[in-house]
Write a structure and sequence with these properties.
Order of helices and strands: EHEHHEEHEH
Structural class: alpha/beta
Radius of gyration: 35 Å
Number of helices: 5
Strand order of the largest sheet: 1-5-4-2-3
Distance between the termini: 130 Å
Length: 220
């Protein structure tokens, strides 16, 4: 009986030669190429220089934004239009003191203005008085002449910045903010009572609280 040759068996474990690089070493796993880095997030705070000249016209910011903790919120009038605290105080404005050094009084006043606008105050409701160096906005606008400067005051549609010496010419506004940022003691003593008379609802004074209390006396 003739023998039938067996068919060669192919074992699954039998594999062809493994490819290797010419050097005989195993090829390294390629590293992923990193893509471009995302742009760095903007730093908090106001964009651009701390005090641009001229500063942009003040408009209320988004009321949903939470104000920073650096300055206390300035209380506004009640829904009835009278100052918070009752109808008995309708003829006397509230007084709020914001502790600040002479060097930081103007910054504190700016933050108080921001908080007022955030709370819904119209820019034309606010008058800012400086006892030392004038606000950069006032300096810039006065460079075009006093007539143009006071025309903006009379328009009453934006925050107005004035030197304490010009306070007697300024008209009353619902809120007056005073920055005790220098100047003589006589200037500050004279400015506070006049500012109180100009404030219809709220007077905010940024400076040393003990000094302010001594100036205003029993009015605080």
């Amino acid at each position: 009986m003739p023998l039938i040759p067996e068919e060669p068996q192919i074992h699954e474990s039998a594999q062809g030669p493994r490819a290797t690089p010419a050097s005989g070493r195993t090829a390294p796993t390629p590293r992923p190429v990193p893509g471009p880095r995302p742009a760095a997030p903007p730093r908090p705070g106001r964009p651009g220089p701390a005090r641009p000249m001229p500063p942009a016209q003040r408009t209320p910011r988004d009321a949903a934004a939470k104000p920073g903790p650096s300055a206390p919120a300035a209380p506004g009038p009640s829904a009835s239009g009278a100052p918070a605290g009752g109808a008995s105080a309708a003829s006397v404005p509230q007084i709020q003191l914001i502790p600040a050094s002479v060097e930081g009084a103007l910054d504190a006043a700016e933050e108080a203005v921001d908080l007022l606008l955030d709370s819904g105050r119209a820019p034309g409701d606010v008058l800012v008085i400086t006892t030392g160096d004038p606000h950069p906005w006032a300096t810039h606008e006065l460079s075009f002449g006093e007539a143009a400067y006071w025309a903006q005051h009379d328009a009453g549609d934006d925050v107005f910045y004035a030197d304490a010496a010009a306070l007697t010419r300024a008209a009353a506004r619902p809120v007056v903010v005073v920055a005790l940022n220098g100047g003589s003691e006589e200037t500050a003593v004279a400015a506070l009572p006049t500012a109180l008379a100009r404030a219809e609802t709220l007077l905010i004074v940024c400076g040393d609280p003990q000094r302010i209390n001594s100036m205003l006396g029993a009015g605080v």
